[in-house]
From TrEMBL:
One GO molecular-function entry: transmembrane transporter activity
Family: Belongs to the ABC-4 integral membrane protein family.
Pfam families: FtsX, MacB_PCD
Major localisation: membrane
Name of the protein in its database record: ABC transporter permease
Residues passing through the membrane, by range: 21-41, 286-311, 331-357, 377-397
GO cellular component: plasma membrane
Keywords: Cell membrane, Membrane, Transmembrane, Transmembrane helix
Protein origin, superkingdom: Bacteria
Subcellular location: Cell membrane
Statement: the UniProt record of this protein carries the keyword Membrane: yes
Annotated coiled-coil segments of the chain: none
Occurrences of domain MacB-like periplasmic core (ranges): 21-239
Length: 414
């Protein structure tokens, strides 16, 4: 039931102690403000990490050779491992049922591309059609290389948007001829990459053409593989980790590499990396919750101390109330009501200011590992619950002390 007299008492107390009430509320508001901002930053870090992994296929397994660091079967360390087409073909035969997408890559760095009067040095990659999905690139015009290009070793080329702007400016690149080391390539597509301009300064051609035109023979530089989807993230990580181990053992055996040589064959498993990063993000988020809760507790302690002072100041009033028949529950309710009111109002103000800051400033924050820091509705509701509990906790002990005051002692208080 709404008690007008009770509210009059609360507002009268606040009017008499404006500065004290303001400072008390500020401690609570700052606690909620800090908690929400920290949680928003935590979510922004999670978004940033997720965006980094979105640059390529999320379950990508990336294989590239290195140099042996240990002697094995009479072979000295320091051998540079060279992957071959036969390695890729054998992997497809052995693990084809597990694989979803696959592509080998023959790469030529620093190739000079010429169109008309424009020229520049760019990364040229010979690949399979699946490379488009493995690198998570999108076509803005034209098409990607296809199996007809591969089988006929066609001189077709797909270029990144940055490369297109460098060579063609505003001119349509589709159908135009680009010369690379005296070899003419027809541009059949232009793409964008979520990785940004660095990824868009590349040209993609059929791997069969790249190996023939640039003296690659049957050499390849790296492998891109993805596995078929699993039911959940943990199952996908487990399957990916097991496959990576099997693949590493297979390649080490095929190229006579010591089993414990970690530098000869390097495998970058995106799912394993993602799990490590997301586990770290969960720990950071838990830490942020801890810091925020501790800040709120500090504010609650301040509210509780203020309520104890209020109880002390109103000892004679409480004694008179009890002498006139006021029940202990009425005294407790009076103190709790004021405590919850001050805490809730201050907390809501801190919540509103923090959400407004994230709403307006958050979209402007776009660093490598922090993107769009936000707090969802569930978290906002949780902070409201924390507010109510904090207000009740802050007022409970002073209220309990007030309820236990004996009228005769209260009336003697000076």
């Amino acid at each position: 039931m709404f008690d007008l007299d009770r509210w009059d008492e609360i507002f009268e107390t606040i009017r008499k102690n404006k500065l004290r009430t303001f400072l008390t509320g500020l401690s609570v508001a700052s606690g909620i403000f800090i908690l929400v901002i920290l949680l928003g930053i935590g979510e922004g870090m999670r978004n940033g990490i997720a965006r980094e992994f979105e640059q390529d296929a999320s379950n990508l397994i990336f294989v590239f050779p290195g140099v042996t660091s240990k002697e094995h079967n009479g072979l000295n360390p320091g051998r540079r491992i060279q992957l071959k087409n036969e390695d890729y073909d054998q992997i497809l035969r052995l693990y084809g049922e597990k694989l979803d997408k696959a592509s080998s890559v023959y790469q030529n760095w620093g190739q000079v591309l010429n169109y008309g009067k424009e020229s520049g040095s760019y990364d040229l990659r010979g690949t399979f059609p699946a490379y488009q999905e493995l690198e998570n690139i999108s076509l803005t015009s034209g098409r990607f290389i296809d199996f007809n290009d591969l089988s006929n070793s066609e001189k077709t080329m797909v270029i990144g948007n940055r490369l297109k702007l460098d060579l063609f400016k505003e001119e349509d690149a589709i159908g135009k001829i680009v010369q690379v080391s005296g070899v003419n390539f027809k541009v059949v597509g232009v793409y964008t990459d979520p990785g940004g301009e660095r990824e868009e300064t590349r040209a993609v051609i059929p791997i069969t053409t790249a190996q023939k035109a640039f003296g690659g023979g049957n050499n390849i530089n790296r492998l891109y593989l993805t596995l078929k989807p699993e039911d959940n993230f943990d199952a996908a990580v487990a399957a990916s980790s097991q496959f990576s181990e099997e693949l590493e053992q297979f390649l080490k055996m095929r190229h006579t590499i010591a089993p414990d040589d970690d530098s000869a064959i390097r495998i970058n498993n995106y799912l394993e990396n993602a799990k490590r990063f997301f586990t770290l993000m969960d720990m950071i988020r838990l830490f942020f919750w801890g810091v925020g809760i501790c800040t709120i507790i500090a504010g609650v302690v301040g509210v509780s101390n203020i309520m104890l002072i209020i109880v002390k100041e109103r000892t004679r009033e409480i004694g008179i109330r009890k002498a006139l028949g006021a029940q202990p529950i009425s005294i407790i309710g009076m103190i709790l009501h004021e405590s919850i009111f001050v805490t809730a109002i201050a907390g809501f103000l801190g919540l509103i200011f923090s959400l407004a800051l994230l709403e307006f400033v958050g979209p402007l924050i776009e660093t490598q590992y922090i993107y769009n820091p936000t707090v969802n509705f569930t978290v906002a509701i949780n902070t409201v619950v924390i507010l109510v509990l904090a207000g009740a906790l802050a007022g409970f002990f002073p209220a309990w002390r007030a309820a236990r005051i004996r009228p005769i002692n209260a009336l003697r208080d000076e």
